[in-house]
Design a protein that fits this description.
Layout: H1 86-101, H2 107-110, H3 121-125, H4 132-153, H5 155-176, H6 186-206, H7 216-233, H8 237-256
Length: 260
């Protein structure tokens, strides 16, 4: 569209010229709009509003049940991998307690000879050691392998094994050596070591591909130290040998039982 006054091109949809202000038309032209379909008004819904959903009650956790005992397991002595080895802790504490009480007793009051008739001395003699080095060595062996056995077979098996490799081994040593005092915890510690070692060796022999965390070199070092304890602390070498032999036999029995 061209303005008649200033001859400038302007938009056809305006009423006045933006350059000179001349009135071009009285009314603005109508714009063509697309026809929109008429929308029907929404009818009110006759449905009742739904009540808010209630939160679901949490399901009660079912108590865990222990499975059936496997073949070879005895009720009450099943091991606990995550529990504390109370039987081993008590044995270590008793050994330290008797070792400290030696300051108030002479060696003859705690050790054994063939002429002694007090049965309680078989227990005290199996927990008594001379010197801090021997006491530390045997308690370390007793604690490590007692804990390993108790984790696999339970506290009752540890106590029975201690009685077998401790007091019983001293009783055998007393009958064989009637002239010297018989005492020492090294027999029980060696028995624990052998009882733990035999099942490990048998498992490795049956399955060469089976991988375990057993450090046999460290076990050999501990065994050598325990064998040298009688030479340092004047303990009974016979009791140590008997305790180790009884531990080997006990290890064969434990190898037939399945651990937890």
């Amino acid at each position: 569209m061209v303005c008649k006054n200033c001859q400038a091109e302007v938009s056809p949809y305006i009423t006045e010229c933006p350059y000179c202000g001349t009135r071009l038309r009285k009314r603005a032209p109508k714009l063509d709009r697309p026809e929109e379909p008429l929308k029907s008004p929404k009818r009110p819904s006759r449905r009742k509003p739904r009540a808010p959903a209630r939160p679901k009650a949490k399901a009660k956790a079912k108590p865990e049940r222990l499975g059936r005992l496997r073949s070879g397991e005895i009720p009450g002595i099943r091991g606990d991998e995550h529990g504390r080895p109370w039987a081993t802790i008590v044995l270590v504490a008793l050994s330290f307690g008797i070792w400290l009480s030696a300051a108030f007793f002479v060696r003859g009051d705690l050790a054994l000879t063939a002429l002694d008739g007090d049965p309680w001395r078989f227990v005290t003699a199996s927990l008594y050691n001379v010197g801090f080095a021997s006491q530390f060595a045997v308690v370390v062996g007793l604690g490590i392998f007692g804990w390993l056995l108790e984790r696999r077979h339970g506290p009752v098996a540890v106590v029975l094994l201690f009685v077998l490799c401790g007091p019983v081994a001293l009783a055998v040593a007393t009958a064989l050596d009637q002239e010297s005092f018989v005492f020492g915890t090294h027999g029980a510690a060696l028995g624990f070591l052998c009882a733990w070692l035999v099942p490990v060796l048998l498992r490795r022999q049956r399955s060469a591909a089976e991988d375990d965390d057993a450090d046999l070199l460290g076990v050999l070092v501990v065994a050598a130290v325990l064998l040298l304890v009688p030479a340092v602390s004047q303990g009974s070498a016979i009791a140590g040998a008997v305790g180790g032999a009884l531990g080997l036999l006990a290890g064969l029995v434990l190898a037939m039982l399945r651990p937890r």
